[in-house]
Amino acid sequence: EVSTEDPETAFCTLANREDLNPEEGSIHHCLYQFTHNEKLTETNKLLCDVCTQRHNGPKKDIKSEKNYVYTNAKKQMLISLAPPILTLHLKRFQQAGFNLRKVNRHIKFPEVIDLAPFCTAKCKNVAEGNTKVLYSLYGVVEHSGTMRSGHYTAYAKMRSMNNRLSDLVLRGQSPQALETEPVKGQWFHISDTHVQAVSAAKVLSSQAYLLFYERLL
């Protein structure tokens, strides 16, 4: 969903980003960079409909690009609707000449993540007064190999059914109270037909390609 906010609150987040100080090589740092305030200048200026109308007059039918007015602007991508299920896809590739190369660096990720520093101050399904939007990790997909070939394995957390999460998914309700601890359960490593119980520490040391979090209620 793309929305245009009031200019005075457009760049305001639910929690103070300046207090975050994310560690480089962490999922927090990735999210911080992804939602970073960006300046649009020079050849990347914004086509301003209001400026164009002011320059050409409100009744003029603008058909030529020569009449368009471009202006310096700021852009920031923030979350305006916190999802019940959060999926984070790490783009583990980079340009190397004319080819793509896989990035094998370990990215740190927590069992509980707070999305508030990356949410707009007017996030729609966050209860008034809440300054945290917490998620608990329940799944990880890992890829071993190269850009051309490899093998996918997964870590999944076996846990009890969360009826309140079902209500959130089906009815779009906002959680009234937030828990701060990860959902209890047992982690398993799955590779084809081989399934093995593992520790949370093993999961957190994996080379994540996809991360799956559920909203804490």
UniProtKB/TrEMBL annotation:
Keywords: Hydrolase. This is UBP16 hydrolase. One of its GO terms (cellular component) is nucleus. It holds the Pfam family UCH. GO terms for biological process: protein deubiquitination. SUPFAM superfamilies: Cysteine proteinases (SSF54001). GO terms for molecular function: cysteine-type deubiquitinase activity. Residues 1-216 form the USP domain. CDD domains: Peptidase_C19K. Coiled coil: none annotated. InterPro entries: Papain-like_cys_pep_sf, Peptidase_C19, Peptidase_C19_UCH, USP, USP_CS.
